[in-house]
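Figure 2 data, in text form.
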Amino acid sequence: MAFTRKNLPKGEPIALIAGRGDYPILCAKNIVASGHDIVVIAVDDDVNIGWLNGFPAQNVIKISVGQMSKLLKALGRFGVKFAIMAGQVKPKKLFQGMLPDLKTLKMLMTLKEHNAESIFGAIAKEIADIGVELLDARSFMEEYLATKGPMTSWKLEINGKTLQLGINTAREIARLNIGQSVIVHRGTIVAVEDFAGTDDLINRVGKFNLKDTIFVKTAKYQQDFRFDVPIFGMQTLKNLANAKVKYVALEAQNVIILDKNSVLDCAVKSGIDIIGFE
């Protein structure tokens, strides 16, 4: 399934609004490989600064979380028609330590709920209002998406009750904007992801020393794929291995597996089975 717009003019510059992690680095590489120029708006200390050195200084602008006016001015300065959000902003930064400018304060005052989805949705509207289209965050990343069926070996019953419990629970907590991941064990919900994030979820389960646990990750209910796309990468895999979680189920076409081939190879070596579900 293709998510990159087919009618993007060749060479059309794209603004990458970059957060932390390897996702924006990989996304930038794929954008350039697709024949597009790229400019980067880096959300300050959440970004791995090293990779930005590969871009001309005039093509990189650094902003802080909450600087809406600076973000919009940067997009205007670059003169782009398209932008893509890639990489995480630490959730707590949306609520603690953020120094919002006046435009951000006005935006926040209009929101009925203050969660990541509502905040990023409001940001997306501000970007659209200045004539910049925010692309699906899976754009240029199709080859890294989870696919349906076993991506490594899979020893459990594919239609087993525990797996289905995990899928149903993950989708429900995602619908309620609680989290996007859950860990289940032999018909029991062991732990769900919350504001503390995926690493905390895995660390909590590691203390239980259980066997045959399944980690399930899904997209949110009616996910806006312009932002906050679920990611699965090497660090999460290593954390799962340390917590002795042996099975991973990822929603096909909706979860991005960073450095996919290496992650799957490492999963096999670690004795972790990975499957994609719809």
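Caption note: Residues 30 and 140 are 6 Å apart (CA to CA).
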